[in-house]
Specification:
114 residues, mainly alpha, two-stranded antiparallel sheet, binds iron/sulfur cluster
């Protein structure tokens, strides 16, 4: 089995085990820790190595930062001042939902891993 890079922010918590391909996503983070997706590579400068810089931990599971606060990550990638400050909620939500659609979020585990 391929080694998974360490992910910050877990506080030593035991992470959920990756479910089988096609099962409901449990937020284990294996996919994005192993390798950034195409959207991360194209829009926020992620390279081929995991973990993805947009991987966040929230409520005991891993979530995609590009879905929940895309303007922060896009702003950081563009080198904009104030990218980490509060962003317009409506614009963030609209863009985040489009990114979620493009990623196929909510359609089950898309990672063919261990
Ligand atoms: S952009 Fe989101 S879905 Fe893509 S690798 Fe990063 S955290 Fe995962
Ligand atoms: S898509 Fe699969 S590997 Fe990725 S977080 Fe969800 S369950 Fe884990």
């Amino acid at each position: 089995m391929k080694a998974i890079p360490l992910i910050d922010g877990t506080d030593g918590a035991r992470l959920p085990v990756k479910p089988a391909y096609g099962s409901p996503c449990n937020g284990c983070g294996w996919c994005c820790a192993s390798e950034p997706c195409g959207i991360a590579r194209e829009f926020i400068g992620a390279d081929g190595e995991g973990p993805c810089p947009a991987l966040e931990r929230e409520g005991g599971r891993f979530v995609c930062g590009l879905i929940i606060r895309p303007l922060v990550y896009l702003g950081r990638a563009a080198g904009l001042d104030g990218a980490d400050e509060a962003q317009p909620e409506e614009a963030d939500a609209l863009l985040g939902s489009q990114i979620a659609e493009a990623l196929g979020a909510g359609k089950g585990c898309c990672a063919d891993g261990p």
